[in-house]
C-alpha cells in the first residue's frame, strides 16, 4: 500500500504505529521470508483496513498469522528476527514515499525495534518461561473486546501503556512518541 499525504491521516498513523510496534504486531497468512518488503507491505495494507474496521481479534489474528512463521502459535527469537528484518526492509522501501513527519515516526519506531534485545523482549513477555511469546502473553496488557484495535489502544482503561513500556525496557518510554495515549 502506498502511504502518502492523501492517505487518511488516522489510517496512516495507525499503519505506521502498527508496523513500528512490531512487538505488538501480533496484528490471511502470508508465506514470507526475511527482508521481504512486498509481503510486509501486503500485511500492512490488509491489516490497515482490517484493523481500522474489524473487531480487534481479526486484526490480531492477521498480524499473528504473518509473524508466526512456523504455525506453532508462539513467537520465538527467529520469528521476531524475521519480523524485524521485514519491517526494516519495508521501511527502507517505503521511506521516500512518506511525509517528513511520518518518516520521523518511522525512524523512531525503527530505533526502538532495532535497539530491543530480542532475548530481553521475550523475557519481558514470557510468563511461562518457555522461551517464546504466546498470543495471550503478548496481549497481557491489552483488554481485547469487539472494538477495532486502534480504539482499544487509545483507551487508557483497556491498554496499560505503562506496563507495555516496562516490558520494552529502556526504549519503552519512546512508545508515546509513536502515538500511544
Tell me what the structure shows:
This protein is mostly helical. The chain has one domain (9-170). Helices cover 55% and strands 2% of the residues. Strands 1-2 form a two-stranded antiparallel ribbon. Helix 1 (9-20) runs parallel beside helix 5.
Layout of secondary structure:
Layout: H1 9-20, H2 37-53, H3 56-67, E1 74-75, H4 77-94, H5 100-115, H6 118-125, E2 133-134, H7 135-138, H8 149-154, H9 161-167
Antiparallel strand pairs: 1-2
Euclidean distance between termini CA atoms: 26 Å
Overall pLDDT: 80
**Beta-strand share of residues:** under 5%
Main sheet properties = 2 strands, antiparallel
Rg, nearest Å? 15 Å
Main sheet: which strands, in order across? Answer: 1-2
What are the secondary-structure elements, in order, as H or E? HHHEHHHEHHH
Number of domains: 1
Total helices: the number is 9
Tell me, what's the shape?
A: globular
Structural class: mainly alpha
SS elements, strand count: 2
Q: Keywords, please?
A:
single chain, mainly alpha, 181 residues, 9 helices, disordered N terminus, two-stranded antiparallel ribbon
Brief synopsis:
The protein is built from nine helices and two strands, in the order αααβαααβααα. With 181 residues, the chain is mostly helical. A two-stranded antiparallel ribbon has the order 1-2.
Amino acid at each position: 500500500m502506498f502511504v502518502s499525504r492523501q492517505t487518511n491521516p488516522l489510517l496512516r498513523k495507525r499503519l505506521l504505529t502498527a508496523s513500528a510496534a512490531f512487538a505488538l504486531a501480533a496484528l490471511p497468512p502470508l508465506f514470507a521470508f526475511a527482508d521481504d518488503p512486498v509481503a510486509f507491505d501486503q500485511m500492512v495494507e490488509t491489516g490497515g483496513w482490517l484493523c481500522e474496521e474489524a473487531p480487534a481479534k481479526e486484526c490480531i489474528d492477521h498480524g499473528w498469522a504473518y509473524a508466526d512463521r512456523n504455525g506453532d502459535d508462539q513467537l520465538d527469537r527467529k520469528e521476531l528476527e524475521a519480523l524485524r528484518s521485514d519491517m526494516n526492509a519495508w521501511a527502507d522501501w517505503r521511506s521516500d514515499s512518506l511525509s517528513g513527519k511520518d518518516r520521523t515516526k518511522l525512524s523512531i519506531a525503527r530505533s526502538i525495534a532495532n535497539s530491543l534485545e530480542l532475548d530481553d523482549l521475550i523475557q519481558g513477555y514470557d510468563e511461562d518461561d518457555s522461551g517464546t511469546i504466546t498470543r495471550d502473553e503478548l496481549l497481557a496488557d491489552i483488554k481485547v473486546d469487539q472494538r477495532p484495535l486502534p480504539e482499544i489502544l487509545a483507551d487508557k482503561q483497556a491498554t496499560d501503556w505503562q506496563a507495555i513500556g516496562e516490558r520494552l525496557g529502556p526504549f519503552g518510554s519512546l512508545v508515546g512518541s509513536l502515538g500511544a495515549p
